[in-house]
Write a structure and sequence with these properties.
The chain has helices spanning 10-15, 63-75, 97-115, 122-146, 156-194, 228-240, 281-291; strands at 21-23, 28-31, 34-37, 40-48, 51-57, 81-85, 211-214, 217-220, 225-227, 246-247, 254-257, 260-263, 266-268, 271-274, 277-280. It has 301 residues and is an alpha+beta fold. A six-stranded mixed beta sheet has the order 1-2-3-4-5-6, sandwiched between helices. The chain has a four-stranded antiparallel beta sheet with strand order 10-13-14-15. Strands 7-8-9 form a three-stranded antiparallel beta sheet.
Length: 301
Amino acid sequence: MKPVFRSKEIAHVWFHANAPHGKSPGSMSFDGGVFLSYNTAIARKVTHKGKCAVILNDRGFSNTTCKHKNRMMGAIPQDTTCFHFDDGMGTRLNVSPKQLFDYAIERAAGFLTLSKKPRIRQATRDGYLALRQQWLAEAQKVSDFFGLRRKVDEKVDVRLAKRIAAAQKAEQKRIADAQKQVEEREKEALAEWLRGEHNDTYRLMNSPVMLRLNDGHVETTKGVSIPVLAAEFTYRFIMRYRLQGWKSNGHKHTVNTVSGEFQLDSINEFGIVAGCHRMSWDEINRFAMLMGWTNETGVAP
């Protein structure tokens, strides 16, 4: 059983190692050098060649954990060397000196990149550069404390920022290429569907709503099948209101389908809306011409 300490004293017991482990009546506890809020380490004591330091978890959590952090920080003497690291929920801040060093350089590189953004105030730019210097100093402090023998100069984060930018550019290109391949496959699937080569509307989820004639019915890429006469009746209705527009506001237009009925929602300058169907005028006109339909004035669309 872990001994129970008051919330006001548990952080002091942890830092001064007055007990190997313990917990508070609330959600604070410690196990050796690890101080926890709920089940997540918010601080960890480390030693190197007889010197003591504390690694602090930079991750933001709940309001309660923020209060726990304040209690923990109040127990750490001001002359204690502290390092920062971003660790997730349920972790124990079990990080190496190299990880601490790299994290500080990454933060410096991030603020350097932010400082180069166009159209920001000079005060904001200066603030980013000041934070960059703080993180460069932290990296040097990590190197000195753990004897990493890694010199922090004014270009170390510049080089990292360039590598990060190159990696981001490569990742953006990879995503764009993958998206292009998906679009090409969807375009091909749509063309095959229009030719009647398959009925797999799942492959058309991101395609525009289109129509085809299949086995005496008008089918949509959403999988709805409408008898030809019902489809032509709806076509003539929407052409009647194309110029002035129409909304299902006290009025109804029912579209009879093979599986039931659904309502037309609106007619606007972009086309029509009927439930999940949003169909453009270009597609309506294309299919009407294919079917040989004319509007109520007898003029082809």
